[in-house]
Amino acid sequence: MQVLVVGAGVVGLAIARTAALHGHDVIVAEATGGIGNGVSSRNSEVIHAGIYYPTGSLRARHCPRGRRMLYEFCGSHGVAHSKCGKLIVATNTAELAKVETLLAQGRKNGVEGLELIGGNAARALEPELSCVGALLSPESGIVDSHGYMLALWGELEERGGRIAFETPVERISFAAPHWRVRFGGRDAGTLAFDAVVNSAGLGAQALARRIEGYPPGEVPPLVLAKGNYFGFAGKPVFSRLIYPTPVDGGLGVHVTLDMAGRMRFGPDVEWIDHESYTVDPHRADTFYERIRCYWPGLPDGSLVPDYCGIRPKLSGPGEAQADFMIAAEPAHGLPRLICLFGIESPGLTASLSLAEDVVGALET
Ligand SMILES: Cc1cc2nc3c(=O)[nH]c(=O)nc-3n(C[C@H](O)[C@H](O)[C@H](O)COP(=O)(O)OP(=O)(O)OC[C@H]3O[C@@H](n4cnc5c(N)ncnc54)[C@H](O)[C@@H]3O)c2cc1C
């Protein structure tokens, strides 16, 4: 098939590479001038184990499977990564109950090696930590997400696929047996494809509305939840990822480490109504308060505003956390079209697994 993938984020690239490996003729259309310029360059770069997600959800399916595939891919393609492990910490008895629930859910999701440890055992691993107990997840890790996307792009090109940059998709219509796609930008024009994947991240809903015949009622609402990060001006004090118990809309302000050995904190949850990428320095006050629950030694003046990312959510504040949405023909009635909505965390971890299922669905 001639396949068009819209969006050169981590998910679009993974789908394009998988489709190319399956022998399809693949073009990726990307509105900006490079890969990973959307949500994919503004995240924690954490390889999630797959603990949190409700049984039967797409995230429970794709996170653990995607994580195993991602470690294997990074190993075989020379992508920098580290299986550094993670602790989800309880700072009081109420949180201990939450951590126990997470342990049970993680085990149901097939996450390997999870272990509940006491406060002293946690401090033996991470001496700066203050907690009454913790869930140890040895399978969690970090990845150089840009290196990963470059490797996907490389393999796509090796298999004859290509990316058209500065090429926004403007309209899509089905004229049997083909999809007719109108592009703007650098390579403006109309081309025909056998199959189309809408993997446009924050732009997925807007694009779906420009697909002729796509039922408007089937386009889910897009809810924006900004996640701000603060960098730590000092030497890292933790060697593992440290997470508090989850909060409404996110996983809580956690300690993330990157492959360059830096330590940073975030993301928090800031519900917004339009895209904006500035980090309000005043949010540091809340960060100090939250981080000191599990790291009382956080020095004054050590947090510096860093970057932020926007989660393309399908649910809002106070609502049950929505799952990923993979809309294929049964959802919208159109052949060989797949729209991906709400691909927030753990989309980076899940990318290779999502790609397998999306390409499989196009082939059936
Ligand atoms: C704060 C935050 C922290 C996160 N942390 C983690 C984490 O630690 N681990 C993890 O696994 N996941 C994490 N995620 C989730 C992960 O980053 C995303 O799920 C993933 O990056 C989504 O990739 P994508 O390819 O779907 O979207 P994007 O990367 O946004 O790519 C979509 C692309 O489509 C392009 N586009 C849009 N409209 C059009 C159009 N009409 N025509 C052509 N191109 C178009 C855009 O320019 C963009 O490049 C986090 C997300 C956020 C926001």
Description:
The protein is an alpha+beta fold. It has helices at residues 10-21, 58-77, 93-108, 119-125, 145-158, 204-208, 284-294, 329-332, 347-363; strands spanning 2-6, 25-29, 46-47, 81-82, 86-90, 115-118, 133-137, 141-143, 162-164, 169-175, 178-183, 189-193, 195-198, 223-232, 241-243, 254-257, 263-266, 270-272, 303-313, 325-327, 337-341. β10 (169-175) and β11 (178-183) form a beta hairpin. α1 (10-21) runs parallel beside α5, α1 runs parallel beside α9 and α2 crosses α9 (347-363). The longest helix is centred in the first third of the chain and has 20 residues, at 58-77. It is elongated, with a radius of gyration of 21 Å. 48% of the residues are buried. The model has no long low-confidence stretch (mean pLDDT 96).
Keywords:
elongated, binds flavin-adenine dinucleotide, about 30% helix, about 375 residues, five-stranded antiparallel beta sheet, six-stranded mixed beta sheet, alpha+beta, 21 strands
